[in-house]
Amino acid sequence: MDLNQKPRGRFAPSPSGRMHLGNAWTALLAWLDIRKLGGTMVLRMEDLDPDRCRPQFAEGLVEDLQWLGLDWDEGPDRPGVAASYKQSERSDLYQAAFDSLGQRGLVYPCFCSRAELRSVASAPHAGEAEPVYSGRCAGLSMTEQAEKLSVRRQAAYRLRVGEAEISFTDQLFGPQRQKLNQSCGDFVIRRSDGVYAYQLAVVVDDAMMQIDRVLRGADLLASTPRQIYLWQLLGYPPPTFIHAPLLLAADGSRLSKRQGSLTIEALRGSGVRPEQIIGQLAVWAGLIEQPEPLRPDELIDVFSLDKLPREPVVVGDTLTNLI
Predict the structure, then answer these.
(1) Around Cβ 239, how many Cβ atoms within 10 Å?
(2) Class at the top of the CATH hierarchy for domain 90-201
(3) Which of 267, 294, 268 is nearest to 281 (CA)?
(4) What are the beta bridge partners of residue 178?
(5) Domain with residues 3-87+245-314, CATH architecture
């Protein structure tokens, strides 16, 4: 089978809580984008972080997606080109990429504080400041590294960025350019507890699954150059990127799984129908003018990236007071 015959997209949620309205927004747009092109839709569970991800949340995500009317061609329940569609079962692939980079002298241990390294295995979010790494551990000699490892035994591992400058064009936000040593510095690709960082895992997964089209939230736009840098180092062509604006709560904060009233489970429990949710999401996406009950497949013909907003969408406190 020639996987280049049609586009391959994906929805890759983290099963760290129940699916909320913002997740459904991204899932619907990614689904419509790939279905409009007649491509293959992949579902991948990014259950990389054992401290946050739970099997019951993964099961809930599948349940919610199916209830909304969103399907997929490959995933944990539908084997395809990948050995597994769960990150927790793909560590050998991340290790191989890590070793390849290390053999080229691009990786070094970092002994900086845990606070600086927190959450590196999770996707970063908009509005969260991330300090530029100073390079404090970049110049340690092999002897110094060995001495520190003998005492501490564990270290995070960072990727050297050198003078890399990355340019790409986002299909919604246009041309992007970033000099990595100014925007983030050498970044972590494996935590001190051995968990591979999001930046490395997502690149390996998309490359191995031959994903060539990625529609995801705009909170990941700033970290995309790091991923493109990794794609280049590992010898894979980066996909086309579309970063969709986020849905915001009434107070302007980013929707999160902590807002229980906006989970798909809670909305379903309150009597909201999936067609009502899809119809309201379609209004926010600029696909229709007034809310009306719709199935996802009824939006394929009217879907266009040109219609999508470029600014965040404020949705209010709950869906039920909008429909």
Answers:
(1) 21
(2) alpha beta
(3) 294
(4) 166
(5) 3-Layer(aba) Sandwich (3.40)
Distance, CA of 124 to CA of 222 (rounded, Å):
9
What would the pLDDT profile of 90-132 be if each residue is shown by its tens digit? 999 999 999 999 999 999 999 987 665 454 555 554 444 567 8
* CA atoms lying within 13 Å on the CB side of residue 212: 11
- Residue ranges, comma separated, of all CATH 3.40.50.620 domains in the chain are 3-87+245-314
Burial (CB count <10 Å: 0-12, 13-18, 19+), residue 12: buried
pTM of the model: 0.90
